[in-house]
Amino acid sequence: DTLIVWSEAENYDLALSFQEKAGCDEIWEKICQVQGKDPSVEVTQDLIDESEEERFEEMPETSHLIDLPTCELNKLEEIADLVTSVLSSPIRREKLALALENEGYIKKLLQLFQACENLENTEGLHHLYEIIRGILFLNKATLFEVMFSDECIMDVVGCLEYDPALAQPKRHREFLTKTAKFKEVIPITDSELRQKIHQTYRVQYIQDIILPTPSVFEENFLSTLTSFIFFNKVEIVSMLQGMDDLQVRSAATDIFSYLVEFSPSMVREFVMQEAQQSDDDILLINVVIEQMICDTDPELGGAVQLMGLLRTLIDPENMLATTNKTEKSEFLNFFYNHCMHVLTAPLLTNTSEDRREKDNYQTAQLLALILELLTFCVEHHTYHIKNYIMNKDLLRRVLVLMNSKHTFLALCKRIIGLKDEFYNRYITKGNLFEPVVNALLDNGTRYNLLNSAVIELFEFIRVEDIKSLTAHIVENFYKALESIEYVQTFKGLKTKYEQEKDRQNQKLNSVPSILRSNRFRRDAKALEEDEEMWFNEDDEEEGKTVVAPVEKSKTEDDFPDSYEKFMETKKAKESEDKENLPKRTSSGGFKFTFSHSTSAANGTNSTNSKSGVAQTPPASSNGSSSKTTNLATSVTASK
From start to end residue, where is composition biased (Polar residues) (predicted)? Predict the structure, then answer.
């Protein structure tokens, strides 16, 4: 509405552009007034031309084609004028393209080019530049197929070197044949694929380098050329996808690796957007996991590389946090909802019905990789992996593999290493030490890696004084393990267990009898029932975030009512000190202070020290080194 365009007889296209439509209409009316035309008609082309176009449209395709001059050196100027004159008329362009195609005219022109170049006929070469450029502007795919064939494309490039506007011709052919080198990321043996890659590169070079930037009136002249390049690239990618070649897969892995190393956040953003439009099966992350699982290499070299990339993507340390959203939370929610089931599928399938399905070396290597990634999740993710392990009973499935010749204990060791009472409760409730103990007993007297790994696990529990696990092991497995005397680990666990029992009894005996009455004392069995009830309720709510239980009542505020607080207090490592007798203060409470002595370590009761201020000692944050008294199993001080 704000542009007036016209063409001159010399084939020059001109235009007037206006900022406002009113100004454009005013000038248009004045032009039409001078020409004696109706300003209401948007096109003022001569009626003769219009009728001529109509006649071309009505004629059969093979009739009244444009007559081409004979392809000779002395006719090159005439041919150039003909080609440039038809560009302003779409119908004439169609007719000329049809004539060029039917008569095989392009190959004849390229033969003339070779003759002109040999004769150093500069004028003829300039005409050939105009002719070939004009044929490209005809925008016909059928002509491109001829011009860009292996037989013709270098001569086409040669014609385009002789631009009349340049003092010296460009050496494009020399660049394409000598300077440009074809670098194969992977060896390509398919000759058709190689030819397609070479052709696409050269056509792209013609479009981007040789041809001048098209004016606003020439932009549509090369639309088919752009499409030709695009479809060539699509065909190349399709041919590569059809190649079942390990080297192709390796190259794709390298490219993905560079992307992840460059910007893991960019990859995470892409896969989360992809999840909104695609099924889980075709998500990029799941494709990567499937490639890892299906690696045919016995040593799983490619799978190891992909596992490292997945670990980078799910590492919270390189996730960004903004004021509007948290990348960590969003991506981990996505990963556990859409991808974790694909990762654990081989593990769950191979341990169905509490027995292993396959026990070969490659399966063992794959499961070890999966468990290594799950172990990483246990270390770096919080409630996401905790919920997943509980809901899928994952640790039990992993420990099924203990009776395989390829043993897997790393995940169990890492979970215990967290010293998280929630995990400890899960282990004791599920009796998950049973396959570990059985594997140790079945191993007999052999001193091997399995023996060392299991002993190391129990030694860690003893050294870190994880009380709940120590009690569970001694109460359930000590009779089976007491015969193992070449290490002192199990005797040490029994000693820790007995010392803890003595300390608990000592505390109960040191408290005044009135505080042990039924009115103020919660029965230990009641506490266990509360724990059991809460734990079962948590198991029923699959997929929900792990939370601590709600406070039971105001009268129990002085106690660690939540499961986590209770278990943290219960597992807090107590010093081997002599316990002071509690002394009532003015506020009516008690404080227990300790002085270091061997008698306390041996479980004897001391009545010499006395307590001072009334308060309950806080539970340790890590549950292993705090020197506090476990009040939860002894007394209630509130009324």
Answer: 583-639
429 and 528 in contact (C-beta within 8 Å)? Answer: no
What is the pLDDT averaged over residues 348-357?
71
CB contact at 8 A, 38 and 32: yes
C-alpha distances (whole Å) from 89 to each of 5, 12, 200, 213 are: 14, 13, 29, 21
CB 578 within 8 A of CB 609: yes
Q: At what angle do helices 47-58 and 90-102 cross, to 10 degrees?
A: 40
Going along 565-608, which residue ranges are E strands? Answer: 577-579, 594-596
Tell me the CA distances in angstroms from 323 to 294, 319, 320, 327, one per residue in order.
40, 14, 10, 11
Q: Which CATH architecture has domain 3-44?
A: Roll (2.30)
Two structure tokens written together for 555 = 């009268």
Q: Using only the alpha carbons of the chain, give its radius of gyration.
A: 42
Residues contacting residue 121 through CB under 8 Å, at least 6 positions apart: 73, 115
pLDDT tens sequence across 17-33 = 887 878 888 888 878 77
**Dihedral (Cα; 399, 404, 410, 412), 10-degree rounding:** 10
Which residues on neighbouring strands pair with residue 3, listed in sequence order? 17
What is the C-alpha separation between 284 and 275, in angstroms, rounded?
Answer: 9
From CA 484, how far away is CA 202, in angstroms rounded?
Answer: 77
Question: Dihedral sign, CA of 447, 453, 454, 458?
Answer: positive
Report in angstroms the alpha-carbon separations of 436 from 63, 210, 347, 375, 450. Answer: 90, 73, 18, 18, 10
CA–CA distance, 473 with 459 (Å, rounded to integer): 12
Comparing CA positions, the residue from 457, 454, 293 lying closest to residue 370 is 293
* Strand 594-596, strand 577-579: pairing: antiparallel
Query: Over the chain, what is the mean pLDDT?
Result: 74
**Per-residue model confidence (pLDDT) at position 219:** 59
Helices vs strands, H then E, count in the chain: 29, 4
What is the C-alpha separation between 272 and 282, in angstroms, rounded?
Answer: 13
CA dist 165 and 168 (Å) reads 9
Outline which parts of the chain fall under CATH 2.30.29.30: 3-44
Cβ atoms of residues 14 and 5 within 8 Å: yes
Q: Pick the residue with more confidence: 40 or 137?
A: 137
- What is the rounded distance in angstroms from the CA atom of residue 115 to the CA atom of residue 124? 10
- Encoding tokens for residue 144? 């491109």
- The vertex-186 CA angle with 181 and 190, nearest 5°, equals 85
CA 577 to chain centre: 53
CA–CA separation, 91 and 54 (whole Å): 9
**Residues 106 and 146 sit within 8 Å (Cβ to Cβ):** yes
